[in-house]
Amino acid sequence: MRTREYIITQILAYVVCGLAALLALLPFVLLLIASFTDNNWATANGFSYFPEKWSLEAYRYIIGQWEVIGRSYLMTIIVTFIGTAMSILVTTLFAYAITQREVPGMRIISFMMVFTMLFNGGLVATYYTYVNYFHIRNTIWALIVPNLMMNAFNVILVRNYFTNNIPFSLIEASRLDGASEFGIFFKVVMPLSLPITATIGLMAGLGYWNNWENGMYYLTERGGGHLYTIQVILNNINENIQALLKNQSIISGLHVELPSTTVRMAIAAVGILPILFLYPFFQKYFVKGITIGGVKE
Amino acid sequence: MNEKTKKRKKKIRWKRIWPFYLMALPGILYMLVNNYLPMFGIVIAFKKLDFRKGILGSPWAGLDNFKFLFASADAWVITRNTIGYSIVFFITGTVMAILVAILLNEIRAQKMKKTCQSLILLPYLISWVIVSYLAYSYLAAEVGLFNKGIIEPLGGTGINWYNEKSYWPFILVFVATWKNLGYNVIIYLSSIVGISTDYYEAARIDGASKWQQITKITLPLLKPTVVTLVIIALGSVFRSDFGLFYQMPRNSGTLYPVTRTLDVYVYQALMNNNDFAMSSAASVYQAVVGFVLILVANKLVKKYESNSALF
Predict the structure, then answer these.
(1) Residue B69: its pLDDT value, please?
(2) A67-296: CATH homologous superfamily?
(3) Is B200 in CB contact (< 8 Å) with chain A?
(4) Where does chain B show beta strands of DSSP type E?
(5) ipTM rounded to 2 decimals
(6) Residues 6 or more apart whose Cβ sits within 8 Å of residue A227
(7) Which of A53, A130, A131, B221 has a CA 20 to 30 Å removed from the CA of A277?
């Protein structure tokens, strides 16, 4: 039934949602176009959706600097893979253990986990602990361990999934068949938990891919430059520009090489490309993760 | 049952359950390293830290660090900014998300609906560093699209965005809402989809207009979700999104009065000034007040939406 009201609602819905979608998309388009704009033209006329002079110069520069960019890319991939794998393993094992309520001590361990959501030592204490007691500075672990590997939120998601979706009878049956507890976990529980594993794996993977804080806290140019990920490099470019702006007179003696504006945009574009590329494939699990976890955060 | 079988029973029990401790072990170790040891590091705030002597060897400073912190003008500014932005972000975020979610739910063309939802979620997936690059392409004084593509061609003078305080509250609210809209829309959309169609059917038969259906059915039924999220937001009102407040203003000193929050202050005092005293005091101040707020929030959740209580 096409009443006037129906039509008005439809128009309103299309306009508002379309506008929101467009607003979300347009900055990415500008970033991409900016990375393909001729640098001199951009310097004179600013970034534009319709630049008059295009150029591949920025990408040629990146390929020329592949030793740095390529290595940081590889580093990002390595960190994301190792981090995500460890994150999934630690989180699911822990979550499965705390579902065993009859095992003495599990309630206390559960509470320990929830308590981390309520109280934390803060950046200063965390930084001091990692640097002075674990000597994590300028090691690859600095990018993998602090804050990213396991969080209470994901543990709760997985625990709830285990208690609601894994039939206890199945576990009992495997036990009677003489399977070990680890055997049951890896051969019975995990295969049945693929959706939730994919969800927390995606969240963890995205967290690792996007992380720049750990690199900023724990890596130094001299000792940890070889560990830089794309995000850390992008952040460093920002910091160098800010330092230049702040103390022009002090730094002018130093040799700080700054990539041109279009090159910076191109590095950023290269940094988000894999996410844009994989997004259609992982969207489903991602949305599921938000839906089941959203209100419980 | 004699002694022997009793003993055997106990043995079997341990044999059965020890693997679970082994499973929990990596997680427990991680929490000890990442969460619990740093909690003891809080004593830094009460010490006059001397690196050569370590935390325990350093002399006590009592509450001096806190006195210095609260005597500075920064303390009030960063507290106000942290709380103020948290509240405004929550309100704009919720209103926009409910609006978009309701309208998205009205769209009949599945393809359009899917595309919109996918695109709206896009900003949520990228890091704040990348967002700062996106924003820079619009806001940069020399090459930004706003100055070069809009203001100057229209005959105006370009605005030095990164040095102009007055715009930043709006910029930050806009960007925060923009980045998190997709996430919030999904939450509300899932609540809306969960509402039984019978209600709308009945309302339509009674001649209710679309507007009435939204205000009389959808919104009231979204209330529990909103209440839960309000309370959770209350618990985290003392936390700020470090990435947003650190990356977006590009460390511009003139913007500090309107952009610096507790998290940014702690970081800058620690890394730029190596000021363990001030940064640890601010850090503990944030942790303790945040803890109290979460306890209060959880009490409130238990009262209104007991299903969503944290513990």
Answers:
(1) 86
(2) MetI-like (1.10.3720.10)
(3) no
(4) none
(5) 0.91
(6) A75, A138, A139, A140, A142, A143, A215, A219
(7) A53
> In whole angstroms, what is the distance from residue A10 CA to residue B179 CA?
25
Residue type, A187: K
CB contact under 8 A, A149 and B33: no
CA–CA gap between residue A9 and residue A51 (Å, rounded)? 38
3-class DSSP state for residue B238?
coil
The rounded radius of gyration (Å) of the Cα atoms in chain A is 24
Query: Chain centroid to CA A157: how far?
Result: 18
- The two tokens of residue A75 are 């580093």
pTM: 0.90
Q: Is the dihedral of CA A185, A189, A191, A194 positive or negative?
A: negative
User: How many Å separate Cα A73 from the centre of its chain?
Assistant: 14
CB contacts of A22 in chain B (<8 Å) are 119
Query: How far apart (Å, rounded) are the C-alpha atoms in residues A192 and A165?
Result: 8
Q: Is B2's pLDDT higher than 80?
A: no
Residues of A in contact with B182 (CB under 8 A): 24
Reduced to 3 states (helix: H, G, I; strand: E, B; else coil), residue A40 is helix
Give percent of chain B with pLDDT exceeding 90.
Answer: 49
CA A180 to centroid of chain Cα atoms:
35
Inform me whether the C-beta atom of residue A23 falls under 8 Å from chain B C-beta atoms. Answer: yes
CA distance B40 to chain A (A): 7
pLDDT tens readout for residues B112-138:
999 999 999 999 999 999 999 999 999
Q: Are residues B41 and A116, on separate chains, in Cβ contact within 8 Å?
A: no
DSSP percent split of chain B into helix, strand, coil, nearest 5 = 80, 0, 20
Average pLDDT over residues A277-288: 86
- pLDDT per residue as tens digits for the range B51-70: 777 777 888 888 888 988 88
Q: Where in chain B is the domain with CATH 1.10.3720.10?
A: 69-127+166-308
Q: Percentage helix, strand, coil, to 5, in chain A? A: 80, 0, 20
Q: Which amino acid is at A273?
A: L
3-state DSSP call for residue A162? helix
Q: What are phi and psi for residue B260, nearest 5 degrees?
A: -85, 125
Token pair listed for B120: 């709206």
Tokens linked to A114:
């929830």
A103 inside 8 A of chain B by CB: yes
B272 touches chain A (CB under 8 A): no
On average, the pLDDT of chain A sits at 88
For B69-127+166-308, give the CATH class: mainly alpha
CB contact under 8 Å between A283 and B284, yes or no, is no
| Radius of gyration, CA atoms only, chain B | 26
Q: Is the pLDDT of residue B283 over 80?
A: yes
Q: What is the pLDDT of residue B3?
A: 53
Give residue limits of the domains in chain A: 67-296
Distance CA B231, CA B209 (A): 32
Tokens of B115: 């595309």
pLDDT at A253 over 60: no
Are A110 and A104 within 8 A, CB to CB?
no
A80 Cβ contact list (under 8 Å, min separation 6): A205, A208, A209
Contact B27 A94 (CB under 8 A): yes
Contact B264, B195 (CB under 8 A): no
* Three-state SS at A220: coil
Neighbours of A145 (CB within 10 A): 21
